[in-house]
Amino acid sequence: MFTSFARRLTAWYIAAAVALVVIVLGAFSVAALSLYVHLLQANVETASREAQAFAARASIRHQPFVAGATEFEKRARPPGVRIVAVGPFPRPGPPRLPRAFSAPMLIKSGSRELPPGFPSGRLGQPPRPSIVIDGHVESGDPRTVSLSGNRFGFALGTAFGTHLVRLEFLGGELRLLPDPNAIGNAATWLVACVFGVAAVAGILAWFSGRYITTQVLRPLIEVTQALQRFAARDFRPQPIAVAGKSEFDAIALAYNAASAQVAAAFEERRQAETQMRQFVGDAGHELRTPLTIVLGYIDLLRRKAEDGDERSRRIFASIALEGARMRTLIDNLVLLARMEGEDLRPAEPFELRPLLDDLVDSRRLLAPGLDITVALSVDATVIGNRDEIHEAVANIVDNAIKYAPGTPVRIAARAVDGGIELTISDGGPGIHADDRASIFDRFYRGTTRGDVEGSGLGLAIAKRALERAGGTLTLADDSNAGTTFVLRLRADRAQAREASATLV
Fold first, then answer.
1. In this model, does residue 111 exceed pLDDT 70?
2. Are 336 and 460 in contact (CB under 8 A)?
3. What is the pTM of this model?
4. Per-residue pLDDT tens over the stretch 273-287
5. Banded model confidence at residue 110, pLDDT cuts 50, 70, 90
6. Torsion-angle region of residue 203: left (phi > 0), alpha (psi -120 to 50) or beta?
7. Which residues in the chain are classed under CATH 3.30.565.10?
């Protein structure tokens, strides 16, 4: 999210920098080009005055037109000025003194009229006059030769107010104008400079923009990443370094303070849970011995009361039942406290099939009419603590026996990626939709439990045992009838075998 925003912000930096450079340099370029064109026009005016003086001296010397034009252009041609001499023209009467007049510097010159007496060059008429350009005699159409050249330069010259100067010169005509090629080349050079500097400015703006946006957005990016770690349940304190270069550092400081508070709260919670587990473990061990003694005396008294009245027998039977229930609850609490602590039992490979056979045989002894089917499609060697996994599977099977009495219980296993998948299903009433999210919580008992006795710790113990073995325990999305639990276990060997079913 912030990466794309940083890119957009950098693009704004580049656009602003390039636009500013183009505007500023464009204005300077226009001003420089205008000054250059006016300088060329001033050179034209100066050259026209020198041409008049030179023509006056050459007339006194009776210098021929071509020789005079060639000499003048070689001696007095200023830079950036085009000089075109056309002549001589047949002119009746006495020679006139040289004079000059100017006209706009036009791009198209086809509508210009020739001077009076200018020959057309048709058959039977004298040939066209000579044309002298840059000190060299050339051939061409004198009506257009002065306006040939860079059209872009002509357009810029016309836009900046340049004009053509024409004057009589030794019986011909001398034309002086700013060189359109020079104007076009200058404009092209200025445009290239503008775009070149704009490109350099864009590159510099990109680097500076990336640096600035990275420094400005760094606290936001690091806070976002830290919050994502929090969302992934990684609550380890990881303070964000604050450099003090951005106003967003306040967010990083606020996160650091909140992270410290969360870390302190989790530490307090960890200590409280450790103390609670220690208390439960100690209390469980301390309660087991006196409870066992009390239950022993109660059993002795119950046996002596068997010959007494019915009321005494019911009282002693109820006391014995509640005592057994209390002993089971204490054992489960101690077991859960141990599993949630740091007491990790060694994980060793063991065969899955013997574990299931032992579990089914023991349940068959308690309930002779129990219908349990074990179907294994693999011979698997499971990795984990055998006692804890046995406890987990036994709790789930016992729940199926208690909450779905008289229905068949199905245990199946198949190979999956990285291990095996064990499913335990029954045909009972199922688990209500409102209870599905909380069935693995401690002491939680669903709305469909009826009058079945229980502590609400069996599934919590099973889930914790599977997690300690690197596996998972989930409730499958089954139909309205029946309940199916899915156990994922690690295995270092899962060899396929023919499906077999054992009815116990």
1. no
2. yes
3. 0.46
4. 776 666 666 666 666
5. very low
6. alpha
7. 348-503
Domain boundaries for CATH 1.10.287.130 within the chain: 249-340
Q: Is 399 exposed, middle or buried (0-12, 13-18, 19+ CB in 10 A)?
A: buried
Please give the pLDDT value at position 500.
45
User: Do residues 83 and 175 touch, judged by C-beta distance below 8 A?
Assistant: yes
Q: Where are the alpha helices (DSSP H) in 114-179?
A: 151-159
Tell me the CATH number of domain 348-503, given options 3.40.50.620, 3.30.565.10, 3.40.50.720, 3.60.15.10: 3.30.565.10
Q: Give the 3-state secondary structure of 63-105.
A: CCHHHHHHHHHHHHCCCCEEEEEEECCCCCCCCCCCCEEEEEC
From the CB of residue 240, how many other CB atoms can be counted at a distance below 10 Å? 18
Q: What are phi and psi of 70, to 5 degrees?
A: -65, -45
Angle at the Cα of 242 (from 241 to 246), degrees rounded to 5?
145
Instruction: Please say whether the beta carbons of 169 and 73 come within 8 A.
Output: no
Cα Rg of the chain (Å, integer): 53
Give the CATH class of 249-340.
Answer: mainly alpha
| DSSP character at residue 173 | E
Query: Which tops the pLDDT comparison, 1 or 266?
Result: 266
Residues 412 and 422: beta-carbon distance below 8 Å: yes
Tokens of 124: 């039977």
Distant-in-sequence contacts of 65-71, Cβ < 8 A, 24+ apart? 65/130, 65/169, 65/170, 65/171, 65/172, 66/130, 66/132, 66/137, 68/169, 68/170, 69/132, 69/169, 69/170, 69/172, 69/174, 70/132, 70/135, 70/136, 70/137
Residue 103 tokens read as: 């006209």
CB distance 57 to 207 below 8 Å: no
